[in-house]
Amino acid sequence: MLENETSISTQRIQWKCLESKTEGKRLHYGRFVVSPFKRGQASTVGIAMRRALPQEVGGTSITRAKFHGVVHEYSTITGIQETIHDALVNLKEIVLKSDSNDIWEAFLSVMGPKEVTAGDTSLPPRVKAIDNSQYIATITQPISSNIELKIERDCGYRIENSNEYRDGQFPIDAVFMPVRNVNYSIHLFGNGRATQEISFIEIWTNGSPTPHEALSEASKKLIDLLTPFSGVTCRDVSFLEDDKDSSDSMRSPFLQLQFGNACKLEGNLFENMFIDQLELPARAFNCLKRAEIHTIADLLNYSREDLSKIRNFGQKSVDQVSKALWERFAKELPSKKLGLNQ
Questions:
Q1: Over the stretch 128-175, which tens digit does the pLDDT of each residue have?
Q2: Are residues 40 and 120 in the same domain?
Q3: Where is the segment annotated Alpha N-terminal domain (alpha-NTD) (predicted)?
Q4: 157 and 297 share a domain?
Q5: What separation in angstroms does the CA of 46 have from each of 109, 142, 193, 200, 339?
Q6: Is residue 309 part of a domain?
Q7: What is the extent of the structural domain holding 83?
C-alpha cells in the first residue's frame, strides 16, 4: 500500500486535449484534462487559469478610426447607411490576429454601392482578420469611402476619452480579450490517502488564438508572474521576524517609500481592472455601469452607504458587491461615507 501511494504521489502532472472544435470563425472551443494533482492543487491551478486566461492572453483590436470630413460621432455621410457611431461599433467588433506588439495602420478604401466588410480592409502583413465577412457598413450610392485605422495589441479593456475627437479621428473602446469564457471542474479518484484530483478545463476563444494557444500563453504569463518569488530568501524578509523591531523598521523612510509604492501600484492595477471581473448579477452590474462605475478603482471610491444611494441599487446588491470584492481581491468597501453625488 505504501509503495502504491509513493508511486502515485510522484507521478508527473500531464495534460491532454480531449476535444477541439470550431463552432464558427469567431468561436473556437477546447476541452482539456490535467492530472494527477494532490488534494487542493487542482483548485489552485483552476482558479489561477480562470483568472489568467481572460486577463493575461493578449488580443489585437482597432483603437482609432479617422473619417475625412466628419466632425461628430453621430454625424451621417450622404450615401452611407450607418451613422459614424454605428460604423465605429461595427469596427470595434472586428476580430484581428497579430503576433506583434507594434502599432499598425490600416486603410479602408471602398467604392460603392457595396456592403463593406472586414475583408475590404487593407491590413499590414502581420495582421489578419479572422472573419472577412464581419459587417462594417453599407454604401448605397456610387461614392468612395476612405477610413484610416489604428491597430494595437494589448490585454484587457481600454476605455477611451470620448471627448478626444479632432480632425475626424474617433477613439474606439477596445476589447483585447480573445478568451470569451473559461470553465473548470475538479473530480476525485483513488481511495484514502492515495486520493488525487483531476481537472477539466473548457476554453472558448474568438478564434484569434485557438484554445490551445490561449492555454499556452496564459501558462507562460503565470510562470513569468511567479518567477520573481522563486529567488526570495530569508534575508529578504528578515525585518519581519522580530516583532519588537518591526514597528521601528516601518518608520524607516526607505520602507515607508516602498510601502507607498506598493499602494500606488495596487491603485494602478485596480484602475485597469473592470467590474466585469466581479461577475456580479446583471441587475447590480447594470446599476454600477449607469452610475459610471467601470473599474475596481472607481468602486473603491464608494462606501456601502454611497452605493445604497444609487438608483435601484438595494441592500442585497450592496452585499453582493462587498462579497465579490472580498472573495476576488481581498478588498473591502471603505467604511467612511464619501458623499458622492448620484
A1: 999 999 999 999 999 998 999 999 999 988 887 766 667 788 999 889
A2: no
A3: 1-240
A4: no
A5: 46, 55, 22, 9, 40
A6: yes
A7: 59-176
